[in-house]
Amino acid sequence: MRSHLDLRDLGGEVLAGIAVRPARTVLTVLGTVLGIGALVTTLGVATTAGNQIAGRFDAVTATEVTVDIPEPITPGSPPVVAWGSLDDLIRLNGVEAAAAYVTTVAGQEPNVRANAVRDPERVLDRVLPVVGATADLPAAVRASVAGGRFFDAGHIERRDRVAVLGAQAAEQLGLTRVDNQPAVFIDDKPFTVVGILGPVGQPDQQALAGSVIVPWTAGADAVKLGPARTVVVATALGAASLIAQQAPVALSPNDPAAVRVNAPPDPAVRTGVADDISGLLLILGLVSLVVGGLGIANVTLVTVMERTAEIGLRRALGARRRHIAAQFLLESAVIGLLGGIIGASGGVIAVVLVSVGRDWTPVLSLWPVLAAPAAGAFVGLVAGLYPALRSARMQPVEALRGPG
Amino acid sequence: MSDIIALTGVGRTFPSDPPVPALAHVDLLVRAGDYLSVVGPSGSGKSTLLNILGLLDLPDTGTYELEGVETTRLGDSGRTAIRGARIGFVFQSFHLLPHRDVTENVMLGDLYTGGARSTRRDRAVAALERVGMGHRTGFRPTHLSGGERQRVAIARALLGEPALLLCDEPTGNLDSTNTAAILELFDDLRRGGTTLVVITHDDAVSRRAERQVRIADGRLSER
Questions:
Q1: What ipTM goes with this model?
Q2: What CATH code is carried by the domain that includes residue B99?
């Protein structure tokens, strides 16, 4: 013969035990609510703020890698980075677009003259930098083509005298449209304008807006532009630091150290800042959780003492020690679970309110919200261990004489 | 009739300086259907005898067979199982849970002994009707008189259909009217075949039983 207790009956007894003193239950739950709430809020606000910071970084710089290439030491020696080595760079995983270019030396810019075919009277002379570039330049610097088109690999191969004007350069030359095939004369050599560049996205490539961009082959022919001096890479989000490591080898396999790479700051450094901010709050949340657990332990112990006679009665009715222990253990676990659920809900609301107040997008990973009730139940379970042990140890004879 | 209780040479001494013998060489035989009273002044060993009979305490010497099972060699869980299933307790202070209604209190009666869950409420109501409390099922114990509370406690004890109803000063907290009503109920139960052991200090209560045992200084003497 053995005593046993149906789990549903145990659940009923546990809930009835908790419902007996609603005010006390509310006060007992409060500690866990504050602890779990603080933890969820801290984690939520940290991820939200971190996402805010990271978002700003990413949009501006995290997808751009630029490589500066030095001039060859002697005019006759082979270039540090050959134009063709760009193909090796493009093959790297994470590269969305890459382009190389060379600009005329500052102070030695050629004369650029625009001659609109329909109005030969109107001639404008300017001194403008000329850029010899590869065909992917717009994609690499995140620029659009406002009018016409950009030159392509065919133009480069055929050494075609075509030109694309930066937006400011076009304005200075008085050109607003390209459908009438205007020409510009660079050092009196005619180039057909095939397109006008729109705004340039990469912040440190704004100089292109004031330049005349030509195929690097035609640039070498017409104004003696040398080998590529700058490589611009647009990367996928998060790939910039990796590409920054690999680009020198791809571009200059013989001497990777010869080129200088400008890469965005390491993402780990940025999240490190966010972690520092939330670390203290996290400790605060853990402390309040421990305090909440102690509160549950305390109240459960008081409850056990108050219900000594009930424990005696249950033992007389056939309850085994483990049945008594399970009842009190579960009561404190349920109180912890309640605290976890309420705390997690409060935490989510707090994160949303903070985000609304700061005009942020609330970002909350799922796991703290799902783990919070479990954490609360665990705290309650641990808190109930000692009181449950005390209740199970009571001798029925003494317990029946006790209070309650 | 078969023996429900067979105590043989039971002794119980509480450790103190000097040791206090509460029971010494107690022999007692209770048959099924008996209505036995144990009467004695306080300090006579009544409570010790009740605790041993109820498997709440173990004797130091002797044996205790309950329905033919030698219980002194059983472990705590074995005694707990027999206690829950075969013994119904009626206490002086009723031991009802104040926050549960009358029916829920009675339903506790076979919570731990495997009584069918689906019929438990119906059986509790039936037990309440048996003790004349069918009209109070939804009441809280605090809204009942002492006599009514003791009836509820008796209904709880009867729910698991125990072999033995063990009553510890069942009228100790009741006035004479309620006492008379509870004694009437005991007579009814006796006629229905329930085995009753009533422990009391009140001679008037004791005289209602068919068998009366007097206890003094830890020794029994049957009248």
A1: 0.94
A2: 3.40.50.300
